[in-house]
């Protein structure tokens, strides 16, 4: 992996609670809050100064802007939710450029697992554990924050275990 153990270890304790919150709110309310996205971006802005060399830090900030613009276009085309787009932009600077291929595989596997798990639980008595979640009643819509948040958390955990 291209991410360093050092940077992953700095980021994970701050990012993990935000990722868990995003998973929860998107399943419960079908919404990734602006506050969570701003907090995630703020964590990178503050902790990134400690966790990364300054030139890498600046390039990663640029990735946030690029992903935000792409996400905005995808949202306008109806291909992606606004909260999902903003979360992807806020998460982008945590990802080392050399890990993009790994991240795509990790996201694909996480998305499949999240859809199967969410849809499976929705059709079982386990659903009664959270009967008021909005995501149960959305038909084909899926709480993408579940997959996005889990992917970022898993990426940083893998960075601690297998990073450079």
Automatic annotation (TrEMBL):
A cellular component term, taken from the record's GO annotations: membrane
UniProtKB keywords: Hydrolase, Membrane, Transmembrane, Transmembrane helix
Single GO MF annotation: aspartic-type endopeptidase activity
Signal peptide annotation: none
Superkingdom of origin organism: Bacteria
Protein name, entry field: Prepilin peptidase
InterPro entries named in the record: Prepilin_IV_endopep_pep
Domain (Prepilin type IV endopeptidase peptidase) ranges: 15-116
Biological source species: Sulfitobacter albidus
Keyword Transcription part of the UniProt annotation: no
Residues spanning the membrane: 6-24, 36-54, 60-82, 102-121, 141-162
